[in-house]
Amino acid sequence: MDKEDLLNRIFEENIPDADAIKALGGDHELLEEYQFRKSLQVALIRKRRVAQKKLLHQISLKERVKRKRLIWLGLAASLSLLLVTVWILRPQSSTAEVLYAQYYQTFPNRIAPSLRDQNKQLTEVQKAFVLYDNGEYSDAIVAFKKLYESDREAFLLFYLGVSHMETGQFKLALQSFKELKSDDLNPDLRGFEIWYTGLCHLRLNEPAVAKEYLELLSSNVTHPMSELSRKLISELP
């Protein structure tokens, strides 16, 4: 097999490091090229996720109220630009797991931003979101479940689903998202449950099902994830 073909196959099939090194057969030149591509892949994915997280957190509550439509369009355009790095790695990143890592981003807390005033007594909802903001997703799951049992607020199910994704419980996340009714969600959350449902199916290696949900968003040109959904669809295995 041609050396370039061998390297492409290793990245396209997401072959583990140990097996990849064994397949390269001690070829020093190939090993150096493999390590270079591996480090580039990891660096670009991390850079993209950091940039995406920064963009999502830049949307303030006042801006969403006053300039909601402009902000959504700007966010969508910015997210689309970030896909340049994805295209650089496209020949090596066709597997469902790698695509998931490239496109997944924790959804920001848009319900109860954590308070800096430690002397102020927090509500139970605020306490749940403090756990979420701190990355304590297992504890956040318990808190969101308890709150939903009494309050039945749709946003609690949404953040419960994202918390399940953060802990690798994708089937439980799907249960939460599929129980949601989009019309019951806050305007800033509507449609994102479809995006995360698609990502769950992608991570579960169900690209055909993921595509069905992503197409729902891609056809809704006013939604900020519309363009990103089309990009992801074009890269599905």
Give a concise summary.
The chain has helices at 3-12, 17-23, 28-57, 61-66, 68-81, 84-88, 96-103, 124-133, 137-151, 154-166, 170-179, 192-203, 207-218, 226-235.
Given helix and strand content, the structural type is mainly alpha
Overall geometry: elongated
Distance between the termini: 23 Å
Give average pLDDT, whole number: 81
- Bin the helical content: 55-70%
Total of DSSP H or I helical runs spanning 4+ residues: 14
User: Based on DSSP secondary structure assignment, what is the total number of beta strands?
Assistant: 0
N to C succession of SSEs:
HHHHHHHHHHHHHH
Strand content: under 5%
Q: Low-confidence parts, pLDDT < 50 over ≥5 residues?
A: 86-94
Q: Radius of gyration from the CA trace?
A: 20 Å
Largest sheet: none
Task: Describe the protein in words.
Helix content is 68%, strand content 0%. By secondary structure, it is mostly helical.
